[in-house]
Amino acid sequence: MTIYAGSCHCGAVNIQLTSDKKPEEMRIGRCDCGFCRRHGARTMGDPAGSVEFRAAPSDLSRYRFALGITDYLLCARCGTYVGAIMPDQGGTIGVVAAPAAESSG
Ligand SMILES: [Zn+2]
Fold first, then answer.
1. Contacts (Cβ under 8 Å, ≥6 apart) of 72
2. What is the Å distance from ligand 1's center to 89 Cα?
């Protein structure tokens, strides 16, 4: 397993994506919902891996719409879209916003 670390722009939200896959093997998703279109969002994840978002509760903003089951996670300080989580069969599915996982600075 490889741990890929990322963060929002200001560093208040840290992301850890754990996966057996190499970065080039990860499928980059482009969701067509209104939120993702407005953000130009691309997401990545690995169903066999795991993802963790670490932040002080006040530094993480959650946004819900439509069905209201997915939490879109944004840094409350710098506004970066860092990923989304949704319940699934007793667990939770998470995806990471690709730019937040890929970039630093
Ligand atoms: Zn931030």
1. 35, 62, 63, 64, 81, 84
2. 31
